């Protein structure tokens, strides 16, 4: 865990938030999927690996008010918190490694764009699923964005596990029902294209 944390602390110390490949000025794919699942403004939402992402800005602007952001990197969270200013005081900022985290809230939405695909070992993936099961209430939704099978093999110098809806369904197990799957071509700040896939699941059973 400490190696992963050190890596991301270094990334956010060395680069501005707009100078990383995953930067999105407006996280349209994620906001579109939140609209599809029909989450209410007061429902608790958590962004896993959210870091300096601007999803939290979009959620607050849309009127959501029970928002949490979890990331390994305290520096990344500080970037988002400082950017939001006074509005950031209403966000629950969590500095933790998700696979060792103990949730204390039952969330309506578990959102993860580009965190899960850094877990390349099966034991890490299963630990992640175990935490997600604890955190996501029955009837809640998990929105998972990863590199697609034809996406990049590495990100930020680290290997990734590329996925499609079928591989995620196998990993998450019978308690998660796939309700939507789509690809997205993300354009990096320097103009290259990365193929992502987004799969949305409903939590149906313990």
TrEMBL record:
UniProt cross-references to CDD domains, sorted A to Z: AdoMet_MTases
Gene Ontology BP, a term: methylation
GO molecular function, one term: methyltransferase activity
Keyword Transferase: yes
UniProt-listed Pfam families: Methyltransf_25 (PF13649)
Keyword field contains Transferase: yes
Keywords: Methyltransferase, Transferase
Superkingdom classification of source: Bacteria
Limits of the Methyltransferase domain: 45-140
Name of the protein this chain belongs to: SAM-dependent methyltransferase
Species of the source: Zavarzinia compransoris
Taxonomic lineage: Bacteria, Pseudomonadati, Pseudomonadota, Alphaproteobacteria, Rhodospirillales
């Amino acid at each position: 865990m400490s190696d992963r944390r050190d890596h991301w602390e270094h990334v956010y110390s060395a680069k501005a938030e707009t100078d990383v490949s995953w930067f999105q000025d407006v996280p349209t794919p994620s906001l579109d999927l939140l609209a599809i699942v029909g989450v209410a403004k007061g429902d608790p939402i958590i962004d896993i690996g959210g870091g300096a992402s601007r999803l939290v800005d979009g959620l607050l602007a849309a009127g959501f008010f029970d928002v949490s952001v979890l990331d390994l990197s305290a520096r990344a969270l500080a970037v988002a918190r400082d950017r939001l200013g006074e509005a950031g005081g209403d966000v629950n900022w969590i500095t933790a490694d998700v696979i060792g985290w103990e949730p204390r809230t039952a969330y309506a939405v578990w959102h993860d764009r580009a965190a899960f695909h850094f877990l390349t070992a099966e034991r890490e993936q299963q630990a992640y699923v175990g935490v997600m099961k604890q955190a996501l209430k029955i009837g809640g939704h998990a929105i998972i964005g990863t590199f697609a099978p034809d996406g990049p093999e590495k990100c930020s110098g680290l290997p990734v596990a590329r996925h499609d809806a079928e591989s995620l369904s196998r990993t998450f197990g019978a308690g998660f029902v796939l309700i939507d799957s789509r690809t997205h071509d993300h354009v990096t700040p320097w103009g290259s294209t990365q193929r992502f896939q987004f799969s949305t699941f409903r939590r149906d059973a313990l």
